[in-house]
Amino acid sequence: MRKGIILLILVIMVLCGAGSAEALTEEKIPTNNTVASPDTRLKTGLSNAVWEINPAYRSQVTYSGGSFYIPRDRTGASRTYTDLITVTYKDAGKINGRSIDVKMNIDKLVQTKELDSRTTDKGEFLKLWSEETSLSSYKMSGKGYKCTHTIDVSYEITYGDSGEIVEYPFFQAAVDIDTKQNVASVAEGFKQIRGYTRYYTYPACVLIRSGGGFYSPSQLETSGRDSWTKTGLYATTENGSFKSTHYLTNCRTEIYLFNQYAESLIDRPSLSVDSSRVYRQGEEILWEVKQRIGEFFVTVMSPYDLFSISDDIPGAVSYKSAEVTDEKGRNVTHLGTLKYDESKREVTFRFGEEFLRDKSVYDGSVYTMRIKTEAEAPREPVETVQNTARSEISGIIMETNLQAVTIEAPELSVQKTNTGKEYYRGERVTYKITFSQRTEGVTAENAALRDILPEGLRLDRETVSLTGLEEGEYTVKFEDNGYEINIERLEYGEYTLTYEAKVDAEDRAQTLTNTAVITASNAERKEHSSNIRVMEIPKFAVRYSFVSTDGSPLPQEVIELVPEDMTEYAGGTEVKAAAPEKDQVDGITGLWTFEGYDREKAVIEGENLLFTGAWKYTEYPAVLSVEKKASEGVYYHGDEITYTVDFAQELEGIEGKNVILKDRLPEGLELDEKSLLITGLEKDMYEAEITDNEILIKIPSLGFGEYSLIYKAEAATGQNAASLTNTAVLSADNGRETVTATETVDIQGRFGVEYDFRSADETPLPEAVERLVPEDKGWYRTGETAKAKEPEKTEVILDEGMWKFEGYETDEKTVEEENVSFSGSWRLSRPELSISKDHDRTKAYYSGDIAEYEIAFSQNTKGAYGLDVRIIDIIPEGERVLEDSIAIRGVEDYETRVTDKGFEIIIDRLEYGDYTLTYQCEINGPDREQTLVNTAEIKASNVENSQEALSGLTVLEIPKLVKYEFCSDNGKRLPLEVTALVPEDGDVYYRGDVVRAVRPEAESVKVTGGTWRFTGYDKEKKTVEDNVLFVGTWTYTMDIFSKTGDSILLPALFLTIMAIAAVSGALAAGGRKRDRR
């Protein structure tokens, strides 16, 4: 009944609303899992709401805690309220940076009549929560409020700064459209009136679409996500002006407003670049502008009108190329139009209309425009390039963050130096100018190096020399007393310019300064100055100095011999060098000898004169000594011997130069390299090399003193005695002589014990046996007794069989000047198979019988086993094996394969032992005497030959029997007197025999009323093919008169026949009558 009322109401609502609202398209959201987040909604709640109640209803509308109530008409009449209340939500959100206000007006509220006295007196129609709004027909407390509300609501959403209607589409969510409590006869619902464009519902939605709106189907209550997916819907709008009707029944419907272009739903673009490094001219700079697209049915409900990404290429970089990629890095530039406006230096990518219409692309992913630019020459040494990009979505332009990169210009440097001494008039100054371009990867354009000499210096143009640049890469321009080097392109690197200048300044003390300047059109100017000190020329003097020929310091005894000349000489005077008082000085470690002056005489020409004398040092030779000894003892092969080599430099005051101590060990000694030790020297004072059993100690400088080389060596002479001699050799570059020391050590003979195994036959020994060869690490002297060691195992079981150790040729041997060897013998016992087969020979077998067979098989070698053993039984024609009867005693794991010709048993591994295989065969051959021979074969993969066993089963022909039967010629039952005469034949017959029928003992038998007479058999003789049956026939003859003659049979017989005829006639007549009927 209730469902019928609901349907009637829905029909009425459809009829009433059919002409008032245009039907909108409904589209299903693909999944129930995407719900628009309430956190992204426009703020339409108590926190930002102001309201105004129509003065005509102020006395009727009450407010409490965010809820607005109207009273129930106690007369039961319906009430209509017009322009009941206007609620304005200030600063509900921002679009394109502009604040928006939402004005919601309840244009009309119709309250249905309700006379139930149990209802409350007033009901809620509007609820303002903190951040959201609900329309309702809701009880205040206690009793239910059964009046329903039909509410027409209009919205105007405007910009706060101008009052203009927002031109962008919105989408509205109506949630929890259900019917609750005691008013299930009325359906809650939502219906658009104007300004809406489309409905969206979830797959789980249970609302009924009717008359341009959606209605709850029946008594229903939802909560949580179900209130969105089952009883909720979205409606998109054309712009910020729209109107709808809400049907409420004792429940609330939440109303959410969203705008996909609001700042809460649309992500701003971002710009990224690698700003962690410094760029140089010509290098690539990659800018990436990222913009996230909205997610349909979550943040977007209408396709974008426009979606573009742009960037104004900043100065100091040049545009090269661009592409657009999706979140997976795939190039998607083909999805729109990429354009670079060279006049505006603007690169723009605009997504195509087909792309924007496709709802599936609105998946919340990020699209990136990758812009490749190239660094240009900076206008300053270090230039910072700033960039911001933008995106535009449906007319909303959003700027990215600011990014900056640094482009570095060429860096010039210049340094000017001279020899740094004091100069006199007439001397020459050598200048060195080092200049460079320090920034790698860039070029200094139109570089120039300029140097103008001051008064007092005169440039020698012939000495100007430039290194680092090839001819043709620069030009030189000389001025009166200077020069300019022009370089069109100065690359990264360092360059050197040298020249000489003559001092022509006045003869007085003064400082002369000149400056080198380097410039470039794209680099900062750099300069560097160099000063020289010009001294007044004195009266000329002659001076002397001594130096050593090798640069070493001179001893005081030599320095004291420098001549002194206190005379002042005029210019042009020729002076002869004065000889030292002595030309030889004897030192402690060597002899100093005067070699002469740099010149014997010279003329004074405007400057002091200096004679430089040279002294040569000859060092006395170093005195070396060496001794060598080995530790005392009796040594055998394998013993360790300690050697000590004592060496010294015996001349105090000098050092041995490049001293080498060499000790090569002879064959029979093996050096322990880790034992090497040198005393008296620090480790950084020598270098030790060990190669091929030779010790080489290199000492660059060996002072006065005693030292030792200690090392250990192992005797490795083997079995024989040996006398081992080795010599230590000590030498130096300045040694008086090379010295040696020799030591001899006697090694006694020692002998070892060796073992080998051999096969007792030609079979090669396996690795498992050879691994058992014993080791004797001991050593034996001549005359000692060596006893043979038993192997760890004397039996080894392998696939091919069991190897058994048979012993050595002898158990012990006496050592006699050579190693002792023991040879052990092993013998292989291979697995051996045997098989026999039989059956019960006490029985006679006929066709159709079951024959039982027994196969006895063995593996006869202890310790060995057969591998992949197969028992094959070929069943002859005339027998059929019964598969279920096959069984083996003693073997648990085996496989049976039955074929038309027999069967096969497979045993992976057959141990030593005896086993029995039994099975049954059905004799299914023809019934004749014959012998059935079947063959059993056993073989294994590791046994060379197979074994066979034959069994012959004799099948006899089944004996045939002869039987007799009697019958009457007319089917009459034979009396006992006749059946008692059936012959019996106790003999047996075989196929081909001819059997003649035995006549009955009596061939006529008299019974009451008649006589039975034997008329013969079906055949008198038969050839035996199977059991034989002779069938004899008897005929009965009735007596006409009885023996007494007291009654006449014929009349009685006649009357009987007549009676039978009469009855038969009547029956026949009745049958004909029935046929007619």
What does this structure look like?
It comes from Candidatus Allocopromorpha excrementigallinarum. Residues 1-23 form the signal peptide. The structure is a single chain. The chain is mostly beta strands. It folds into 8 domains: 2-258, Major cell-surface adhesin PAc; 277-408, Immunoglobulin-like, CATH 2.60.40; 412-535, Immunoglobulin-like, CATH 2.60.40.740; 540-619, no CATH class; 624-747, Immunoglobulin-like (Sandwich); 751-829, no CATH class; 833-956, Sandwich (Immunoglobulin-like), CATH 2.60.40; 962-1038, no CATH class. The strands form 17 sheets. The chain has a 9-stranded mixed beta sheet with strand order 1-12-15-10-17-8-7-4-3. The chain has an 8-stranded antiparallel beta sheet with strand order 2-5-6-9-16-11-14-13, covered by helices on one side. A hairpin with a 2-residue loop joins strand 3 and strand 4 (67-71).
Keywords for this entry:
mainly beta; nine-stranded mixed sheet; eight-stranded antiparallel sheet; Immunoglobulin-like; flat; 1077 residues; disordered N terminus; 6% helix; disordered C terminus
Chain-wise SSE layout:
Layout: H1 2-17, E1 25-28, E2 49-53, E3 62-64, E4 67-71, E5 79-95, E6 98-111, E7 122-128, E8 133-139, E9 148-159, E10 171-175, E11 189-194, E12 196-201, E13 208-210, E14 213-215, H2 226-229, E15 233-237, E16 241-249, E17 251-258, E18 270-272, E19 278-280, E20 284-292, E21 307-312, E22 317-325, E23 336-341, E24 346-351, H3 353-357, E25 366-375, E26 382-387, E27 389-393, E28 396-399, E29 403-408, E30 412-418, E31 422-424, E32 428-437, E33 444-452, E34 457-467, E35 475-479, E36 482-490, E37 493-503, E38 510-520, E39 523-535, E40 540-548, H4 556-559, E41 568-569, E42 574-576, E43 584-586, E44 590-597, E45 601-603, E46 609-619, E47 624-630, E48 635-636, E49 640-649, E50 656-664, E51 669-679, E52 687-691, E53 694-702, E54 705-715, E55 722-731, E56 739-748, E57 751-759, H5 767-770, E58 776-780, E59 785-787, E60 795-798, E61 801-808, E62 812-814, E63 820-829, E64 833-839, E65 845-846, E66 850-859, E67 866-874, E68 879-889, E69 895-899, E70 902-910, E71 913-923, E72 930-939, E73 947-956, E74 962-968, H6 976-979, ...
Parallel strand pairs: 1-12, 19-29, 31-39, 40-46, 48-56, 57-63, 65-73, 74-79
Antiparallel strand pairs: 2-5, 3-4, 4-7, 5-6, 6-9, 7-8, 8-17, 9-16, 10-15, 10-17, 11-14, 11-16, 12-15, 13-14, 18-20, 20-25, 21-24, 21-27, 22-25, 23-24, 26-29, 27-28, 30-32, 32-37, 33-36, 33-38, 34-37, 35-36, 38-39, 40-41, 42-45, 43-44, 44-46, 47-49, 49-54, 50-53, 50-55, 51-54, 52-53, 55-56, ...
Organism: Candidatus Allocopromorpha excrementigallinarum
InterPro entries: Adhesion_dom_sf, Chlamydia_OmcB, DUF11_rpt, Fim_isopep_form_D2_dom, OmcB-like_DUF11, SHIRT
Pfam family, one: SHIRT
